[in-house]
């Protein structure tokens, strides 16, 4: 088992490493080697956050994270959460095989919340107004237009969507403890999204067949 540790806003701890590795043995016993494990420990004010990411040999990924006022408790709770999901999908995980074929790439962006957008736009507007005033005085102008408000993109990342069935995508979403999951549909080859509905069921977003064909033809 390849295990990587990251300590954020705290000192590296040999005792914590050993404790986490011991608890990870309960996860390891469900799977054949090799496993790649990433453990991230973060202290944020009084909260101690333990996050674990496990990549299995068949490509599936597991994720669990917990936050308490004690790091050892966070480790226990996070790995207990992960084990519950593993036991739930144990048979399907064991027999899961990656689908052959080309996987699509998508760009995921994070857009600032409205309050942050307002703050950033106000700062930009103030700077633009000051610059425009200077320019107007230099040219004897009478005024200027106010910049329009626009979404502020904090960051963007490009990811490759895994090629799998809808059932496989739902399982992967739950193993990652996510509310949605973007994937390449193994049957159609198109990008789909599965998500958790408010009523507890699952939703599926997929391109309309006719529209997808028209888009591909252009």
Q: In summary, what is this structure?
A:
With 218 residues, the protein is an alpha+beta fold. It has helices at residues 14-28, 71-88, 90-95, 114-139, 166-175, 209-217, and strands at 2-8, 36-44, 47-55, 61-68, 105-111, 153-160, 163-164, 180-185, 191-196, 202-205.
Largest sheet: 4 strands, mixed
Range of strand content:
25-35%
Structural class: alpha+beta
Tally the beta strands: 10
Descriptive report:
- This protein has 218 residues and is an alpha+beta fold.
- Helices cover 39% and strands 30% of the residues.
- The chain is built from six helices and ten strands; from the N terminus they run E-H-E-E-E-H-H-E-H-E-E-H-E-E-E-H.
- It has helices at residues 14-28, 71-88, 90-95, 114-139, 166-175, 209-217; strands at residues 2-8, 36-44, 47-55, 61-68, 105-111, 153-160, 163-164, 180-185, 191-196, 202-205.
- The strands form three sheets. Strands 1-2-3-4 form a four-stranded mixed β-sheet, covered by helices on one side.
- Helix 1 runs parallel beside helix 2 (71-88).
- It starts with a strand and ends with a helix.
Question: How would the blueprint of this fold be written?
Answer:
Elements: E1 2-8, H1 14-28, E2 36-44, E3 47-55, E4 61-68, H2 71-88, H3 90-95, E5 105-111, H4 114-139, E6 153-160, E7 163-164, H5 166-175, E8 180-185, E9 191-196, E10 202-205, H6 209-217
Parallel strand pairs: 1-2, 7-8
Antiparallel strand pairs: 2-3, 3-4, 5-6, 8-9, 9-10
């Amino acid at each position: 088992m390849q295990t990587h540790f990251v300590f954020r806003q705290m000192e590296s701890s040999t005792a914590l490493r050993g404790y986490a590795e011991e608890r990870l043995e309960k996860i390891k016993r469900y799977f054949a080697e090799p496993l790649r494990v990433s453990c991230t420990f973060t202290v944020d004010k009084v909260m101690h956050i333990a996050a674990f990411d496990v990549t299995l040999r068949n490509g599936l990924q597991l994720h669990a994270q917990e936050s308490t006022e004690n790091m050892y408790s966070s480790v226990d709770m996070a790995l207990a959460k992960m084990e519950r999901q593993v036991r739930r999908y144990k048979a399907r995980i064991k027999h899961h095989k990656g689908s052959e074929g080309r996987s699509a790439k998508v760009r995921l962006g994070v857009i600032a919340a409205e309050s942050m957008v307002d703050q950033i736009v106000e700062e930009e507007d103030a700077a633009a107004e000051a610059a425009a005033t200077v320019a107007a005085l230099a040219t004897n102008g009478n005024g200027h237009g106010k910049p329009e408000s626009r979404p502020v993109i904090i960051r963007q990342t490009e990811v490759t969507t895994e090629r799998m069935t809808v059932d496989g995508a739902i399982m992967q979403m739950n193993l990652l403890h996510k509310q949605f999951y973007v994937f390449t549909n193994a049957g159609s080859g198109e990008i789909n999204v599965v998500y958790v509905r408010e009523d507890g069921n699952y939703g599926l977003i997929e391109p309309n067949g006719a529209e997808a064909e028209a888009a591909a033809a252009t």
